[in-house]
Amino acid sequence: MNMNKSVRRAFLQLLVCFFLLAAFAFAQNGGELRFCLRSEPKTFDPALVDDDASVAIRYLTGGVLVRANRKTQDLEPELAESWSVSKDSKQITFKLRHGILFSDGSPFSAEDVAFTMQRLMDPALHSSTGDAFRSGSGTVSTKIIAPDQIAITFPAPLAGLEHLFDQVAIMSAHSPKKEGAVLGPFMVAEYKAGSSVLLKRNPNYWKKDAAGRRLPYLDSVRLDIQPNRDVEMLRFKRGELDLINSVDSDYFDRLAASSPQLVHDAGASLDYEFLWFNQVASAPIPEYKRAWFRSVNFRRAISQAVNRDDLSRIVFNGHAQPAVGPVSPANKFWFNSKLKAEAYRPDAALKRLQDDGFHLQNGTLFDKAGNAVEFSIVTNAGSKPRERMAVMIQEDLGKLGIKVNVVTLDFPSLIERISQKFNYEAAMLGFRNVELDPNSQMTIWLSSGDNHAWNPQQKSPETAWEAEIDRLMRAQASTADPKKRKESFDRVQEIAAEQAPLIYLINQNALSAVSNAVAGANPVILNPQTFWNAERLTVNSQARASR
Amino acid sequence: MLISKTAPRKTLFWKIARHLAAIVAIVLLGGLLSATLVRLAPGFDSDERELDPGLSAESVRALRQSRAGEHNILRYYSGYLRAAWHGDLGTSHALGQPVQSLLRERWPVTLRVAGVGLLLAWLLALLLAFTACLWRVPVYEMMGITLSGAFLCIPAAVLALLSVILNAPGYLAIALIVFPKIYRYSRSLLAKAYELPHITAARARGLGEMRVLARHVLPVAGPQMIALAGVTVSIALGASIPIEALCGLPGIGQLAWQAALSRDLPLLVNLTVLVTLVTLLANSGADVMNYVLQPRDV
């Protein structure tokens, strides 16, 4: 009897040990996630990040006070338990979590937040993350109220202030490892220049799952540096990679045909493709062409003559939506739902042109001075979809008697032409919209802005509608009331649709590919689409090997 | 006829000195030419970050200002040479890292890929060329010519893509790019050497093929093959650019590709200097070796 009891007890103890060991093994063995960065990360310093590769690494390694949930688009507390913004939108106060350690074991406190903000706002650093906080002249001050409480004060009101902290990875004020000490789920363990970056799980990461297991599940993340998309897809098919964050529509369909379970179309993304005409007064283009480009009827006619449905169907195989304006319908709060994408109406386009004195003669469109309507569209070489879109626009406008020449340039040459020499007639590019808040587009909309593509750096607004946009953008940036901000930016979107300084073409869908070896993936439209919840992903290496 | 085994030391010294002087002059000129070409290239002065709407006007101005020192190319180049003299090769615009550390990290990869590729190319080419000359079987010779001709026609980028698709190592692609040039040239050299009357006479006297090759053919064809060795170094280095860029090999070739696309002046000037230096050293080395091994009257 006693014997049986002791055997049973020993058996039970063994069983408990086995389950504990299994649980431990599961918790500690989430596998290695592998995917590609499309360029070399320029920096591991979160304050200096401004390229896609570095942004991805910052997302995986940096701990932030608040994080925009990539699925719900709501702001959620992270290192800050709570926060409050002053009525005048000049001050934000954070209440921080206790007992959090950096990856090197140094404790996290309000001092680190103050240090991070002071470093970001250093005018000599020229940090794009810091620049987002520059609301007006004057300095940003930090006040440590308690070790777990800090107030940050800005010289001028900053609308959507709390959302900007999604990009601010907190750095340690005291760690000798500097940016090597992180608060995010992973830390940089190895960097082979030109080849790969290996991230290991941060043993001190503070988050736990609902079952009390410490996150992240993954042991490591291997980021291979691979600019070539063909090679990236080939390696994914071979099972060497677990995910592709942004897949071209051609590749997407090819992969969907063979392995539909691996591809994900999350719908229209925030990114858009657009076309604009050069309206710069000093640009080296003929005066009569500048007059066309400055005419709203001409711009609207071109917009109406472009068949966006065809662009979506033919160039993107249906994985794109006709663009409405600067805000994609995917941006739930800021999209102006009253607006609709410009419909394809070549007859209406011709009518508009005729209203402006243009006339068709033997299949060629002439302006009222008798100049044949002909212009070139410059775009960047190497982007197959963009080149194909340019060719389709060439065909669409050809039906109106307009001759379009498509010129592809490498990126540095294109940037020089559109932002320094202004030696172009029309240009086509894509805008990667990583922020939901319109404040991130201030330099695009303000007439004095460097990115006011069609006519940048104006000393004073050259048109009444640009002056109105300036006023509305400044108004929305200086109030904390979301309703008032939305009203102002809705009007900006309406003016943009009426005046068509930028002709919005399509919003490409957020296409991604995820291996079936990855568990927990839930691709979304916001960046980083596939690994936004990296801390909760696991990789089954056996499933990967069997692909 | 008396043959000296070694070249006169004084003449050799002056030959090496002349080569070194020429190398220094050409490298300096090459660097200046590279800087000038990059400066004149469209888009030299632009930076992708200028399109970042998150950057303030002050930051964009600072970005543009940071390259102002490169506008006057003579001033830039003299400044570059002064800094290089003190061991500072500048900082890459595109990668934000010191050029010196980039070269230190990347050079071993290229050395390995191009070195192994060259070695394989020479082994394969010489094996085929020697056996073709020894056996003189028309079908075999035709096979060698067809094979080398085929690889001669395939662009380096296509070979690089094939190596990616087949998961083959990058050095194999370099070997296949260099191989046809070595094979065709050495095959022709050996064939001409075998046609020389004294080699025909040696064969007629019943000398073994290996002895004919070692004693009579190689001394005739050797100097030109050594010169070819120098040239193939520059071919391999040139081929490493598309191979490394497409195969994702983090060497000097990949770096050169990135630097050219981003108009990275400091990096491009240093890469030009480095590649010119290696090429000239290889060619001069071959020339000096030929001089040393050259039979001469005493």
Please characterize this protein's 3D structure.
The complex is a heterodimer of chains A (547) and B (298). In chain A, helix 9 runs antiparallel to helix 11 and helix 15 packs antiparallel against helix 16. The longest helix of chain A is centred in the first third of the chain and has 27 residues. Helix content of chain A is 33%, strand content 21%. Chain A has 547 residues and is of the alpha+beta class. The two termini of chain A are 53 Å apart. Among the domains of chain A are: 119 residues, Dipeptide-binding Protein, domain 1, CATH 3.90.76.10; 240 residues, Dipeptide-binding Protein, Domain 3 (Dipeptide-binding Protein, domain 3), CATH 3.10.105. About 2% of the residues of chain A have low confidence. Chain B has a single domain, classed as MetI-like fold (Orthogonal Bundle), CATH 1.10.3720. Helices cover 77% and strands 1% of the residues of chain B. A two-stranded antiparallel ribbon of chain B has the order 1-2. In chain B, helix 4 packs antiparallel against helix 5, helix 4 packs antiparallel against helix 9 and helix 6 packs across helix 9. The radius of gyration of chain B is 24 Å and the shape is elongated. Chain B starts with a strand and ends with a strand. The mean pLDDT of chain B is 88. The interface between A and B is large, with 46 and 47 residues.
